[in-house]
TrEMBL record:
This protein's name: Ribosomal silencing factor RsfS
HAMAP family linked to this entry: Iojap_RsfS (MF_01477)
GO cellular component: cytoplasm
GO MF annotation list: ribosomal large subunit binding
Subunit structure as annotated in this protein's UniProt entry: Interacts with ribosomal protein uL14 (rplN).
PANTHER family: IOJAP SUPERFAMILY ORTHOLOG, MITOCHONDRIAL ASSEMBLY OF RIBOSOMAL LARGE SUBUNIT PROTEIN 1
Length: 120
């Protein structure tokens, strides 16, 4: 599976568990950190952990991928799932606006998730 397909799959998993403000940014040309960042907001620590669980389950079942690293589970305001070619960031609303990854990575290309995400 390509990094783009993995990013789309992660966005679907976040959408299935009612993640909010789901976006993906292609950063291939501006960093070696990853090819895509997938970003979502959860409404509580419980939902943030459920969103991450959904991503882990779907990526393992459909792509055979397990995260190389998981960060932030204990804290619950920002959880990072690092798959090498994609990084999934799940934030609380406050942490998301504080870190504002979309602004930091504004040079990246937004990935069109139309048709991937359900309407709110």
């Amino acid at each position: 599976m390509t990094p783009k397909e993995l990013a789309i799959l992660a966005a679907k998993a976040l959408d299935e568990k009612k993640g909010k403000e789901i976006s993906a940014i292609e950063i291939t040309d501006i960093t070696t950190l990853a090819d895509y960042f997938v970003i979502a907001t959860g409404s509580s620590n419980t939902q943030i952990n459920a969103l991450c669980g959904s991503v882990e389950k779907l990526l393992e079942e459909q792509a055979g991928e397990k995260p190389l690293r998981r960060e932030g589970y204990r804290d619950g305001t920002w959880v990072l799932l690092d798959y090498g070619c994609i990084c999934v960031h799940v934030f609380s609303a406050e942490a998301r606006s504080f870190y504002d990854l979309e602004r930091l990575w504004a040079d990246g290309k937004p990935l069109d998730l139309t048709g991937v995400l359900t309407q709110d």
